[in-house]
Write a structure and sequence with these properties.
Elements lengths: L8 E7 L15 E2 L2 E2 H9 L6 E5 L3 H4 L5 E3 L9 H11 L4 E6 L7 H13 L5 E5 L2 E10 L3 H9 L5 H7 L3 E5 L12 H11 L2
Parallel strand pairs: 1-4, 1-6, 4-5, 7-9
Antiparallel strand pairs: 2-3, 6-8, 7-8
Helix pairs in contact: 3-5
């Protein structure tokens, strides 16, 4: 079997939010098709990297099986996904960090391979997925050497992942607006509807 690993790439799974749209439940641990959402991302990401990171702020014992290392936000109060990305960049053992949200079980390997290939063609700039006019900042590839610059902007008050990555010259990988692989199953209704559409 061919090696599918993304060379020089750490992967960060984001599961550190409040889960407000899920009634405060820990989103990554909610079951879909009989498995926690995080398990789908783990199975996709595990063969691609020797450095699998997971950002979580609770339920660490349950998340431990799904990553090489668990990371928590420096600040209390769920300050947002940029806090998790900062922790991922500080911890990454490779020159690139691939960032993925935990509630997207329809992602596939070809998309991640495409992100990597496009990102390394412009090695000093971040990459974000883009659907039409819509940037998708939580699907991104970030050079780890930008960690210090991102920290500086964070300390100056920046909290928007999209705005910060665009300030750093991010380029986009264009997808169809209807690309189902990016579906965020972040409400109970979306989980149920998607499961019905796919069958059991």
């Amino acid at each position: 079997m061919a090696d599918c690993r993304l060379p020089s790439c750490s992967i960060l799974l984001l599961a550190g939010g409040r889960g407000q749209r899920m009634g405060g439940q820990d989103k990554g641990l909610i079951e879909w098709r009989g498995r926690p959402l995080i398990a789908w991302l783990h199975d996709l990401a595990r063969p691609l990297t020797d450095d699998l990171l997971l950002s979580c702020n609770r339920n660490q014992a349950r998340y431990a099986a799904y990553a090489d290392r668990l990371l928590g936000d420096e600040e209390a109060g769920y300050p947002g996904p940029l806090a998790g990305i900062r922790a991922g960049l500080a911890a990454a053992r490779n020159p690139w960090l691939l960032v993925l949200p935990c509630d997207t079980p329809l992602l596939d390997g070809p998309l991640l391979q495409a992100m990597y290939s496009v990102a390394i063609s412009i090695p000093d700039r971040p990459l974000m997925l883009r659907r039409g006019e819509q940037w998708e900042p939580l699907f991104s590839m970030i050079p780890a050497h930008l960690s210090e610059e991102i920290d500086t902007r964070w300390l100056a008050g920046e909290r928007s992942v999209q705005r910060l990555l665009l300030q750093l010259g991010a380029h986009g990988l264009e997808l169809e607006e209807s690309d189902h692989r990016l579906a965020n199953l972040n409400t109970p209704e979306l989980l149920e509807r998607t499961e019905r559409q796919m069958g059991t």
